[in-house]
Structure formats: structure tokens, C-alpha cells
Automatic annotation (TrEMBL):
PANTHER family in UniProt: RNA POLYMERASE ECF-TYPE SIGMA FACTO (PTHR43133), RNA POLYMERASE SIGMA-70 FACTOR ECF SUBFAMILY (PTHR43133:SF46)
GO biological process: DNA-templated transcription initiation
Domain spans labelled RNA polymerase sigma factor 70 region 4 type: 121-167
Protein name: RNA polymerase sigma-70 factor (ECF subfamily)
Length: 191
């Protein structure tokens, strides 16, 4: 049995001295390896310490199929990638907040209202005959004019106008329960 296997076996038995030996043997290399991903020594040290804490916590059930060093370096890489993803999320949130302001209670309510209304609109659109839905979507969501829709669908502009008119009538019928919700959203947007 080589030293690494011996230390792992001792670690599995809860031998703190074996854990300390593994920590002293790999800690520095792991922090340096983390520096390939993060230019933040303190954060690399945090990641490595977390890995060792998990190693200790899971010592009794830990199964390592490669070498311990490979396992630890892969853990560092994964920890660094998670950190980079976390930082990217923070940057995206900061950009959103700079562009649209902080997300307050009112924004949350607006989001929920819009989300709910959008779900009902999608449901109502699915109930429309395909020809009506197609013309409506092309006009209202894709921004095409009646003439452009007519050319694409090879129908007359009058037919496009009729289909969109009928789609609007059916949507009014399907969404009649949400008229109040629409008015609330419009009034919140004026605040």
C-alpha cells in the first residue's frame, strides 16, 4: 500500500494526523492551481479550505477512483469554475440594476403580474385558429405590416386585416377576466 492509499485509509478511520498530513502535502499546490482560474489568492484559499472541510466531513463514505491529487485538483477546478459563474451572475445582476434600477417590491409585483398575464396570453393564443394566430403574431410580435404579412402568406391585405381583427376579438373574449389585471399593470407603470 503506497503512502497516499495509507493516508486515505487512515482518513476514513477518522485519523486527524492523516488528515493534517494530506492538508500539508497538497494545500499549497491546490491554491497555486486555483490561481490558474482565479487571480484572487484569498478566494483560492477559501475554495481549497472548503474542499478539505468536505474531505473530512465525507471521509467515511468517500470513494476516489483516481489518484487523490487528481481528485483534489479537479475539485479545485470545479470550485473555481463555480466561483467564476457566481461572479458572472453578480455582474449580470449589477448591469441589470444599473440599467433598470433596483428590483423592489413594486418591480416584483409587476414581474408577477406580467408573468401571469403572459401565461394567460400564451394560453389564449393557443386557442386561436392557426391562421388567425399566425397573422396576429406576425403583426403584433414580429412587427410586420399588413402588406408584408399578405406577401409572406400569399393572401390579400384584407384577409390579413380580417384575421387579425378576429384574433383580437377572440383574445378579448379569452382574456376578459384579466382586464382588471391589465388596468392595474398600466396604472403601476405610471407610478
Amino acid at each position: 500500500m503506497n503512502e497516499e492509499h495509507y493516508l486515505l485509509a487512515e482518513l476514513g478511520q477518522g485519523n486527524k494526523e492523516a488528515f493534517s498530513l494530506l492538508f500539508r502535502k497538497y494545500y499549497k499546490d491546490m491554491v497555486l492551481f486555483g490561481g490558474n482560474y482565479l487571480y484572487d489568492k484569498t478566494r483560492c484559499e477559501d475554495i481549497v479550505q472548503t474542499i478539505f472541510a468536505q474531505l473530512w466531513e465525507n471521509r467515511e463514505t468517500l470513494v476516489i477512483e483516481t489518484s487523490l491529487k487528481s481528485f483534489l485538483l479537479r475539485s479545485v477546478r470545479n470550485g473555481c469554475i463555480d466561483e467564476l459563474r457566481h461572479r458572472q451572475s453578480i455582474r449580470e445582476h449589477e448591469s441589470y440594476t444599473e440599467a433598470f434600477g433596483p428590483l423592489g417590491d413594486l418591480d416584483t409585483e409587476n414581474y408577477i403580474l406580467y408573468s401571469d398575464l403572459q401565461a394567460h396570453l400564451d394560453e389564449a393564443l393557443d386557442k386561436l385558429p392557426e391562421a388567425y394566430k399566425q397573422a396576429f403574431v406576425m403583426n403584433r410580435f414580429d412587427g410586420l405590416k399588413y402588406k408584408e404579412i399578405a406577401l409572406k402568406l400569399e393572401i390579400s391585405e384584407r384577409t390579413v386585416e380580417v384575421r387579425i381583427g378576429k384574433a383580437i376579438g377572440l383574445l378579448r373574449h379569452h382574456l376578459k377576466d384579466f382586464l382588471i389585471l391589465i388596468l392595474v399593470i398600466l396604472s403601476l407603470n405610471k407610478l
